Amino acid sequence: MAFTFPWGLLGVILVSAALLGVSTIAILILALTISHNTAVAKCRPKHTPAHLLVVLGSGGHTTEMLSMLDHMELDQSLYTYRTYLVSSGDSFSANKAVEFENKHKPDAPATAHTNSYSVVTVPRARKVHQSYLSAPFSTLECFWACLLVLRGLHPDQPRLPGKFTSPYPDIIFANGPATAVCVMLAAKLLRFLQCIHRFFSRSQSPRIPRLRTVFVESWARVRNLSLSGLLLLPVADRFFVQWPGLGGRRAWWGMQKTEYVGWLVL
Amino acid sequence: MNSSAKSPTTKLCFVTVGATASFHGLLQQVLDLHFLATLSQFGYTHLLIQYGRDGRSVFETFLANNPSERHGIIVEGFDFNTAGLTKEMYRTRADHERGTGLVVSHAGTGTILEALRLGVRLVVVPNPDLADNHQEELATVLDKQNYVIRSSVQNVAKAIARAESKKYRSAGPSSQEAAYTSAALKDQLGFLD
Q1: C-alpha distances in angstroms, B172 versus A263, A266, B84, B135?
Q2: Does residue A107 have a pLDDT over 80?
Q3: Please, are residues B126 and B109 in contact by the beta-carbon 8 Å criterion?
Q4: What is the pLDDT of residues B167-190, one digit of tens each?
Q5: Where do the TM regions start and end (chain A) (predicted)?
Q6: Can you give the residue ranges of every domain in chain B?
Q7: Euclidean distance between the first and final Cα of chain B, in Å?
Q8: B182–A44 C-beta distance less than 8 A
Q9: What fold is seen in the domain A47-260?
Q10: How does pLDDT run across A134-163, given as a tens digit for each residue?
């Protein structure tokens, strides 16, 4: 008996694969659009402490970030815990973070201070001169490490002080480095899963906003967004730029626009 | 010929090529008798060069062949400084009778920011060998807004003359802008009104 190729079956498989692909992209776009246009739920009781995660990265990003934080004069009594995310091999940034913390040490005893921040190292997303062939793997590695950090499970992380009820950082603050893309995408994924879970458990009570992301494009970017910036355009909850030509950009119709705020780093 | 022995007045030009990528083009332009003559013409007495990891031989060869009696400029150099270049930059600023000195720098963001913070007069020379053209864009826009002078590698000597007559604009601290961002961060926490 002659074998006839099952063209019909192949057709069915191809069509369903295409449908699956298209619907995944549609759901992704829809989810990102909804997330971008949902206002922050105002349900956090006053005077509750917040956990801030700051992404550092070599190539001037760390210097820019720390000088920005310096000017922002963040309220120490509000952001009582800080996590600094650095890439492996970047001891410069790790040292700078400790230096920054020591400089802004409150007058409280030193023992109280040691448990108010931590420096966590994750694998580098893409090394300088790394081939684009192996880059996806190291990016995945970085993404996985970021997921662990956000869930408080990374080996570098000490236990959070007792007053924190969730391992999730409240705010993730970053400028250019590739690690910022990994950690902000990881945050978005966790928020998506949280949202699905709430939907199926029919939870009605408002949820305290956590894992919120704020991105600042590097001061060196005048006319074009960086690759990190482009990727995070539909992801970051607030997107600030330091040159007027980069203001008002958005990922697609219906999304939040980038905001020009002036120089933050001087 | 040079009065620096009698009078303490100095006018310093500080050139930094950066610590990471080598920038021999700029090094060759400033280690040049024409460049030194231009400096001398505008009353400079000293040239300090941060020549980078692999610039030492170029620097020392020039120094051996051109002793300072020949051009009247005292030339000094070092490879790099891990503690930053704040001190070196600041030395150009000190108010002397001869007028303020000058910093000539590669277009690294950190160096430009540091110069703007210190309020020193800066000539930015983007490295044409680096693929990133955003450094070029940054230098151009800062020149257009009179914060710095942007120069090509070949025209560094001309930039010395331009710097003499340029009205530099000084940049203020970012406190107001930062306060806005700080408030935006707090908004994301969703505190009860």
Answers
A1: 10, 8, 21, 22
A2: no
A3: no
A4: 899 888 888 999 999 999 999 999
A5: 6-34, 132-151, 171-193
A6: 3-187
A7: 74
A8: no
A9: Rossmann fold (3.40.50)
A10: 788 889 999 999 999 999 999 999 999 988
Find the CB nearest B185 among A209, A214, A219.
Answer: A214
Helical segments of chain A, H only: 7-36, 61-72, 91-103, 110-114, 135-150, 178-200, 227-232
Q: Give contacts of A 240-259 with B, CB under 8 A.
A: 240, 243
Cα–Cα distance for residue pair B181/B183, rounded to 1 Å: 5
DSSP H/E element including B102: strand B102-106
Alpha-carbon gap, residue A74 to A53, rounded angstroms = 13
Q: Give the position of tokens 């119709």.
A: A253
pLDDT > 70 fraction of chain A, expressed in percent and rounded? 94
DSSP letter (8 states) at residue B169: P
A193 by Cβ neighbours in 10 Å (0-12 / 13-18 / 19+) ranks as exposed
Across chain B, how many H-helices and E-strands are there?
9, 6
Whole-prediction pTM value? 0.89
> Any CB–CB contact under 8 A between A72 and chain B?
yes
Question: What is the predicted pLDDT for the residue at A52?
Answer: 97
Kindly give the interhelix angle for A178-200 and A7-36, rounded to the nearest 10 degrees: 100
DSSP-derived pairing of the beta strands A171-174 and B46-50: unpaired
Among B169, B170, B151, B171, which Cα is nearest to B161's?
B151
Q: Which residues of chain B approach chain A closer than 8 Å at the C-beta?
A: 108-110, 113, 116-117, 134-135, 137-138, 141, 171-182, 184-193
Q: Do B193 and A42 touch (CB under 8 A)?
A: yes
The answer to whether B63 and B48 have CB atoms below 8 angstroms apart is: no
| Inter-chain CB proximity B177 and A264 less than 8 Å | yes
Q: Candidates 3.20.20.70, 3.30.70.2390, 3.40.50.2000, 3.40.50.1370; correct CATH number of B3-187? A: 3.40.50.2000
H or E stretch at A51: strand A51-55
CA atoms of B72 and B35, how far apart (whole Å): 12
Sheet holding B122-125, edge to edge: B74-78, B46-50, B12-16, B102-106, B122-125, B149-150
What residue spans define the domains of chain A?
A: 47-260
- Kindly list the residues from chain B whose CB atom is less than 8 angstroms away from the CB atom of residue A221: 134
CA distance B96 to chain A (A): 26
From residue A230, how far is each of A221, A224, A242, B50 by CA, in Å? 12, 9, 15, 35
**In this predicted complex, what is the ipTM?**
0.88
Paired strand residues for A51: A81
